[in-house]
Design goal:
Radius of gyration of chain B: 33 Å
Radius of gyration of chain A: 37 Å
Largest sheet of chain A: none
Number of domains of chain B: 2
Number of strands of chain A: 0
Number of domains of chain A: 2
Number of helices of chain A: 7
Order of helices and strands of chain B: HHHHHHH
Structural class of chain A: mainly alpha
Number of strands of chain B: 0
Shape of chain B: elongated
CATH topology of the largest domain in chain A: 3 helical TM bundles of succinate and fumarate reductases
Helix content of chain A: 55-70%
Oligomer: heterodimer
Helix content of chain B: 55-70%
Distance between the termini of chain B: 86 Å
CATH class of the largest domain in chain B: Mainly Alpha
Strand content of chain A: under 5%
CATH topology of the largest domain in chain B: 3 helical TM bundles of succinate and fumarate reductases
Largest interface: A-B, 59 and 73 residues
Chain lengths: 190, 222
């Protein structure tokens, strides 16, 4: 490789010399290079030293224009990651609701709200049946899903059922259980 | 990769004519530079290297950053990239945080223990109707701790400490304050009201007053 490269460089220099002088015909290539003034390669792309601070800001700006990756839409919709995302989403919905109610109950005497269980039950009872069903389903769905999927996660944490096949199958079971149990809870007590 | 110059090509050009070398050098560097700029803009604008999708450079947004993208893959803006923080040089290894079981294995086991403890506390009221006050208070405390850990994980995942230290600190302390407020709120609720499970049961099975009045009459008629 090195010898090839060297020959190539020599040939290039000879070719460059040939156009300006006719002396090339008298010498072989190595002799010609020795005889003539050495022609060094020039690089017209100017370089400049950049202070460290400036280099840092250039690098930061360069990194900011990199493509954002990964994007969710590049993945095929599959049970493992979809259910994992839903586990967090339902958890945040449930905990968020819990936190909102707890904080609202604490400040309700100051603001004159009635959040006692009897007042809430009385106002909930007055709602139309369809709205009641929807509200109850809206609470029961994240609750049952997070409960069943949480148990699935605990089974994995104990080191069981963690093959690809079983993860998909248990996911299907969780979806089935969620639909049935949340439907039953929504209908219960109507 | 369009912004990379090819020195071999340029040197071949410049070596062919030594007499007006400097003039050629200037010209070459000028053309190369403008070409580089143009192609990089094209790359940024067209989002894709296929020639059919190229747009004219006149449609470049004026507030584009000066730095040119090297990457030719598509840019999809779901969220703009946060502020970039570069620690160390290219040869420095990624820093390894100090090991601590309190933040590692003990924390992991505690999280799982909390989750597992919620299972019997959730199932019991379905079997018994509602919980006695002590168990109900335990359920509330368990839910608060479980929620707090869950929110902490979410903040750690979505608000990177390295890039957004102030935002992270804000969310971190806001969560702590919220948890304290909610804990006091549920202490009040448990003390003054009927308890969480009983309250949910009451609301869940709440019926209209005239319904409970009409029913026996209808039954009597039938």
């Amino acid at each position: 490789m090195i010898s090839q490269r060297f020959t190539q460089i020599s040939a290039r220099r000879v070719f460059a010399q040939r156009s300006i002088s006719l002396t090339s015909t008298r010498f072989s290539a190595p002799a010609l290079i020795t005889a003539c003034k050495p022609l060094t390669q020039s690089r017209p792309a100017a370089t400049q030293t950049v202070p460290e601070d400036e280099a840092y800001s250039i690098l930061k700006a360069q990194r900011a224009v990199r493509p954002v990756s990964p994007h969710l839409t590049i993945y095929q919709t599959q049970i493992p990651w979809t259910l994992s995302a839903l586990n967090r989403i339902t958890g945040i919905i449930l905990s968020g609701g819990f936190y909102v109610f707890g904080a609202a109950y604490l400040v309700s005497p100051l603001l004159g709200w009635h959040l006692e269980s009897s007042a809430l039950a009385a106002s909930f009872a007055e709602l139309p049946t369809a709205v009641k069903l929807l509200l109850k389903f809206g609470v029961a769905l994240p609750f049952t899903y997070h409960s069943w999927n949480g148990m699935r996660h605990l089974v994995w944490d104990s080191g069981r059922q963690f093959s690809n096949k079983m993860v998909v199958r248990s996911g299907q079971v969780v979806i089935g259980l969620t639909v049935v149990s949340s439907g039953a809870l929504a209908v219960y007590g109507l | 990769m369009a912004s990379v110059l090819r020195p071999a090509a340029i040197s071949r050009q410049t070596c062919s004519l030594v007499s007006n070398r400097t003039a050629l050098l200037q010209q070459a560097s000028r053309t190369r530079f403008s070409e580089t700029l143009r192609t990089s803009y094209l790359l940024r604008e067209s989002r894709c290297l296929s020639t059919t999708q190229r747009k004219s450079p006149s449609r470049i947004p004026s507030n584009d950053p000066v730095a040119a993208p090297f990457h030719t893959s598509a840019r999809r803006q779901i969220l703009p990239p946060g502020p970039q923080v570069i620690e160390g040089g290219v040869n420095d290894p990624a820093p390894v945080p100090p090991t601590s079981p309190t933040h590692g294995s003990y924390h992991w086991v505690f999280e799982r223990a909390m989750s597992a403890a919620l299972i019997p506390l959730t199932i019991a009221p379905f079997a018994a109707g509602s919980l006695n006050p002590v168990m109900d208070a335990l359920l509330c405390a368990g839910i608060i701790i479980h929620s707090h850990i869950g929110f902490q994980s979410s903040i750690i995942d979505y608000v990177p400490d390295k890039r957004l230290p102030k935002t992270r600190a804000f969310f971190w302390w806001a969560l702590r304050a919220a948890t304290v407020v909610v804990a006091i709120g549920f202490f009040e609720f448990e003390t003054n009201d009927v308890g969480l499970t009983e309250a949910i049961k009451k609301i869940w099975t709440a019926k209209r007053k005239e319904d409970s009045y009409v029913e026996p009459v209808l039954r009597g008629v039938a």
